[in-house]
């Protein structure tokens, strides 16, 4: 989770993710978001196999500095293992590259999921390798999902391992 403002010229992002051996809502996910402001993005998520549509929003409430972590607030569909529901989250994230020399950025937060009607601690670690490669280890409060991503210009290609074992692929393009 990046705590920096997004200043590039692309405002729209379309993303698609497919994952094997998961519930219908999570098996095929499409998102379309619009960046209204460098710190505010909103859009819609559509899960065609489950017939579900849900709102997406992400606000960088406090930007990251060399000393201060970012505070990010948002909403999306509930965690990957739930058949329905909305999630509302708050996270703090901090790149440690400036202070440690390591290209890592941990985040931690809390998410409230409407499917289970409970809050849970979430977190993860983003690791960058050069300008094009990154990996994020996501903890959704119940399970861990590692990802690997390759970025080329406006395009990002990814691999996700839901619960570390069910493979999936993702693609997004900004325009």
Characterization of the model:
By secondary structure, the chain is mainly β. The protein has a domain at 12-125. It is built from two helices and twelve strands, in the order E-H-E-E-E-E-E-H-E-E-E-E-E-E. Strand 8 and strand 9 (133-139) form a beta hairpin. The radius of gyration is 16 Å and the shape is globular. The protein starts with 11 loop residues before the first strand and ends with a strand.
**First CA to last CA: what distance?**
20 Å
* SS-based class: mainly beta
Count of helix runs: 2
- pLDDT averaged over residues: 95
Global shape = globular
Q: Roughly how many Å is the radius of gyration?
A: 16 Å
Percent strand? over 45%
Number of DSSP E strands: 12
Give the H and E element order.
EHEEEEEHEEEEEE
- Which stretches are poorly predicted, pLDDT < 50 over at least 5 residues? none
Output the strand order for the largest sheet: 1-2-3-4-5-6-7-8-9-10-11-12
Oligomer: single chain
Taking the sheet with the most strands, its summary is: 12 strands, antiparallel, barrel
Q: Helix amount, in percent? A: under 10%
At a glance:
The chain has two helices and twelve strands; from the N terminus they run βαβββββαββββββ. The protein has 175 residues and is mainly β.
């Amino acid at each position: 989770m990046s705590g920096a403002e997004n200043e590039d010229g692309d405002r729209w992002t379309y993303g698609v993710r497919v994952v094997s051996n998961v519930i219908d809502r999570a098996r095929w996910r499409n998102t379309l978001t619009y960046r209204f402001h460098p710190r505010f993005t909103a859009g819609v998520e559509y899960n065609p196999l489950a017939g579900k549509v849900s709102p997406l929003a992400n606000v960088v409430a406090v930007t990251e500095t060399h000393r201060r972590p970012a505070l990010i607030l948002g909403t999306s569909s509930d965690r990957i293992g739930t058949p329905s529901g909305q999630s509302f989250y708050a996270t703090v994230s901090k790149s440690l590259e400036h202070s440690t020399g390591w290209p890592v950025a941990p985040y931690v937060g809390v998410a409230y999921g409407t499917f289970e009607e409970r809050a849970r601690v979430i977190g993860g670690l983003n690791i960058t390798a050069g300008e094009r490669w990154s990996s994020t280890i996501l903890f959704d409060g119940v399970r861990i999902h590692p990802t690997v991503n390759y970025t080329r210009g406006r395009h990002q290609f990814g691999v996700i391992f839901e619960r570390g074992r069910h493979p999936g692929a993702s693609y997004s393009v900004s325009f």
